Amino acid sequence: MEKRKGGVVMIEERRRVVISNKKGIHARTAAMITSFVNNIRTKYNVKLYIQKENDESRLPLANMLTLAALRIKKGDVLYVIAEGKNGKEAIEEISNYISGEIDQRVNNIDEIDKLLEEHTINITSELKSIREIKNKFGSILNHMGDGICLMDNRGIITYLNPAYENIFNIKKNDLIGRDVKKVCPSRPSIGLLDTKEKIIDILIRGKDGKRILSSSVPIFAQNKFKGVITTYKDVTELEEVIQRLHKAEEKIKYYEEELNKNNYVDEAFNIIIGNSSLLKDVKRLASKAARTSVNVMIRGESGTGKELVAKAIHGASKRKEEAFIKVNCAAIPENLLESELFGYEKGAFTGAAKRKIGKFELANGGTLFLDEIGEINYNLQAKLLRAIQEKEIERLGGNEVIKIDIKIICATNRNLEDMVNNHEFREDLYYRLNVIPIVLPPLRNRKEDIGLLAEHFVEKICKEEGMDGKQISRHVLSHLKEYCWPGNIRELENIITRAITLSDSEQIDVDTFPSYMKNEKRKNDGLINFINGDLARMEEYDREIVRLALKKHKSFNKAAKALGLTHRTISLKAKKYNLI
Description:
- The chain is of the alpha+beta class.
- Helix content is 43%, strand content 18%.
- The protein has 21 helices and 21 strands.
- The strands form six sheets. The chain has a five-stranded antiparallel beta sheet, with helices on one face. The chain has a five-stranded antiparallel beta sheet with strand order 7-6-10-9-8. The protein has a five-stranded parallel beta sheet with strand order 12-15-18-11-19.
- A hairpin with a 2-residue loop joins strand 1 (2-5) and strand 2.
C-alpha cells in the first residue's frame, strides 16, 4: 500500500506473523533476528518495523534490545512492516524467518552467545552517553523552580516535577500515564500535538484562581516529533520566569544536540581510541563525510592515525563491502608511481612482461586512500586530476578508457597551501581533493587520551605476543603525559611495545623507556649529546637524525639528499623507526 509521509508517497508492506518458537522471542533469538534483519535491510534498502497486535506503536525491528523488551511469547501475533520499493521481498524473507522454529536452527550456541554479547556491548556503549544526558536532564528539571510537564507524541503525561505539584496542588501519581486531553482538557499545550509549533507566554488560571504563565515547546530527536515540554510559573514572577525559560530552552537544545551527536557517529569509528573533545569533533565530522561520496582530505602530523580514520570512513560508508586500497605516495619512487596508480599493458615499457592492474582499477566501487598526497610530482598531479574529474583512466601503453567509481580519501602532513603558492602542488587538484578537510590533533593536544591509548596498546601487544598482561602505574602514565610525543600515537605504540618487551615484571617500568624520554641531564660535548656521561645506542642517534631531517625537509627526497642517502634508504629507516 502507499502511505504519505511528510509530503512523500512511501510504499509500505505489512505481513501478519504468528510466533511459533517454543520460548517466544527472548534475548538470544532477538540477537539472531536482529542479525538477519540487518542483512535484509541492507540487501533490499528498506526500513523495517514491528508492531504487536492491538498496539498502535511501531518499533524498529533491527534493534535487539527493543525486540527482546517486547516479551513476545509463543502464539503472539505480530505485524512486520517494511517501507521501500523492495518491501514485499524483504517482508517475505523476514516473515518466513520469524515464524519458524528459530532455536532449532542453532548449531553452535557459543557462536550465538558471542553474537549476543558483541551486539549488547555495542548497544550498551551507544546508550551509555544517552543515559548520562538523560540523568543530567532529569536532575535539572527536578530542581527547577518552574513547574514542568512532559508528554509524549500521543499526549500521554510522562513526567511532572515537584514544582508542578506545588503550583497546581496535585500529586503527580494522579496524572502520570494519563491522557492530557482527559485530565487537563483546557491546556493550550494540547494544540501543539497537532501543530508542533511552540506556544509561549500563555496565561491560564488554576482551580484556586491562581494566574499561571504557560509555555510549551515541541521535542524533536533526529527530526522526529517525540513530545512536548511545558513550563508553568506564577505571573507575579514574570520577569524571572522569562529569563529562566530562555536558559531552560538553551539547555534542552544542548541536550538534544548531544543526543543527536552521539547518534550521528557510526560504530565503525569505535576503532579510534580516545574521548577528548577534539577527537569527538573529528569523529563526528568524519562520520558525516562517510555518508557521502565526496572526496576527503585528512591533515595531521605523522603518527596521528590518518590511515585509521580513512579506514573508519570507508567502514561507515555505503562502500564498506567493496575494496579499500591504500597507496603510500611517499614510499613509491616517482618513476613507478604512475604505473602503480593507473596500471600498464604488456609491453608498455621495458620489463612490462604482462598486464598490471593499477590501484584506481582495484578500488573501483570502493575507496582509494592516497597517503602522503603531497609527495606526488607536479606532472603526475595533472593525470591524477583528470582521473578524478572525468572518472576514467587509461593504463600506460593502452587505449582502452576504463570508467571508475571511487571515493578518494587522501592524507598529508605537509602544508599544501604553501605548496600551492610555491607552484609545487596544483591548485585545481587541491580544491578537488579538499572538499571535506579533517584535521587530526597531535597527541600532545589531547593528552587525556594517553591513558586509554596506553592501556589499549598494552592489551593488544600482550595478546599478539602471547604474554601475560602488564600493568601501567600512575607514575608511568604521568611520565607518558609529560612527554611531547613528536611521533604521536605511532611513537606511543612503539614505546609501549619496547617497554613490554624489556620489562621483567608485571608492571611496565620507566627504565625501559628510551633515554630521550627520561628527562635525564644531557651534556653537549660537540656534535654528539651524552646522557649522564654515556653514549646512547647507535640506533637511537640514527632515529633522531632521520626524524629531524624529515621534520625539516618534509619529504623523503629532500631529506635523503640532505643526509647523503637514497630515497629508498630514508623511507625504509622512517618505517623502521615508526616515523611515518
